[in-house]
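Researcher: Sequence of Menorin-like domain-containing protein follows. Predict its structure.
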Amino acid sequence: MGFLRVSIVLALWTVAVSGVTVQDYFPTLENNVTQIRWAHAVNNQKFLNNTLYNDAINMIEGDVVFGTLTSDTKTKLPIMAHPPNDTSDLSLADFLAQVLKYDTNENYNATYKGVKLDFKSIEALTSYLAFSNIKTYTDAFPIWINADIFNGPDNGVATVDAKAFFTAVKSVANTSLSLGWATGYNTTNPNITAYDSDQTKQMSDAITENDVSVPITFAVRAVYAAESIESLTGLLKIHDNSTLTIWSSDGDKVNVTNLRSLIFAVGLDKTFIDVPDDLLSQLNLDDTSGASLIKMSWVSLLTALVLFFRNVRYN
Ligand SMILES: *[C@@H]1O[C@H](CO)[C@@H](O)[C@H](O)[C@H]1NC(C)=O
Ligand SMILES: *[C@@H]1O[C@H](CO)[C@@H](O)[C@H](O)[C@H]1NC(C)=O
Ligand SMILES: *[C@@H]1O[C@H](CO)[C@@H](O)[C@H](O)[C@H]1NC(C)=O
Ligand SMILES: *[C@@H]1O[C@H](CO)[C@@H](O)[C@H](O)[C@H]1NC(C)=O
Ligand SMILES: *[C@@H]1O[C@H](CO)[C@@H](O)[C@H](O)[C@H]1NC(C)=O
Ligand SMILES: *[C@@H]1O[C@H](CO)[C@@H](O)[C@H](O)[C@H]1NC(C)=O
Ligand SMILES: *[C@@H]1O[C@H](CO)[C@@H](O)[C@H](O)[C@H]1NC(C)=O
Ligand SMILES: *[C@@H]1O[C@H](CO)[C@@H](O)[C@H](O)[C@H]1NC(C)=O
Ligand SMILES: *[C@@H]1O[C@H](CO)[C@@H](O)[C@H](O)[C@H]1NC(C)=O
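Model: Prediction complete. Tokens:
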């Protein structure tokens, strides 16, 4: 019995198609995914309203906590909030329903939205995975499931156990995974270290052991990623089609030169950038000097083609 069940689960896991990917959803941007624009920490109704109707935004990032709504402080459910907060005026179910309504309303002539959900606990994740209408969402728009499953730089302590995470997400194979390491950061006296090779190996081994076949992105904090070119490019090489997502907190002291080197080493087609605007402008991604010439000539060629077809379509 046990064996049969395991076999069926494994079979489903292997054949499952991977839902809507971000690259499929924004095809004109797929050769340079650094163009995809993010709204970060969209954890309340007002911010969600503003984000949905902001045509500059492609991806909405929000944090999910197992907590309570301000309107009902008794019932626990997955809500949009960032710890230490555990109440919100917006539940995860409401958040997803509103994105679905927005993305499927043909009367809008606007930018569709994809979603990245940063789950802050295993309870938040498993209660999302138990939504009876989850397939309606995963079939309609890209949803990344993110969690910090391993300890990371500056004594970060994982918020979701890796084993429990991979077991949980197997029930909904049709979705992309965003895998991260927890990070610490001392704003008065930052301890700027790197994602070391032990940390990337731990991640890599877990992916292999769990036979992950859905698209993977590695979520890394800019300030530490900038110091980790070797370990991160190594990790991406091991896992076919995996990508990097660079995020940052306001005020992090990022070495911009090194971060640019990382982005061009990984490639503009494989690096999502969800950072505050001031860091984004400092990255100066128009300037390709210092980037690998061979890689760039391909990217330029593809971009020229994309721009060409885009013009054809719009004119
Ligand atoms: C995965 O998503 C696609 C649409 O993107 C859908 O056609 C398919 O039925 C889904 N598969 C599963 C197992 O949910
Ligand atoms: C969000 O938008 C809806 C519909 O447009 C509106 O009814 C609601 O009052 C808005 N909420 C906030 C907090 O702005
Ligand atoms: C907690 O909620 C308050 C009020 O909504 C907000 O101002 C604050 O930024 C939130 N804290 C975090 C860590 O998100
Ligand atoms: C819809 O968007 C296209 C392309 O940006 C624009 O040319 C067109 O005027 C828009 N139509 C409406 C009704 O806003
Ligand atoms: C700095 O971070 C490293 C790991 O990234 C950790 O081993 C070390 O203890 C930290 N140093 C201090 C002073 O916290
Ligand atoms: C941050 O660094 C300062 C100065 O070294 C230290 O006094 C403080 O305790 C540190 N804060 C944390 C949370 O580690
Ligand atoms: C990687 O992408 C290529 C092209 O889209 C595809 O043929 C291949 O199966 C993918 N590999 C994995 C492991 O997903
Ligand atoms: C960034 O790192 C490089 C090489 O590690 C170093 O030479 C440079 O001084 C650093 N830049 C800043 C602003 O710290
Ligand atoms: C890629 O996108 C960035 C915006 O994020 C832009 O500055 C850069 O010029 C683009 N590069 C290419 C080669 O398309």
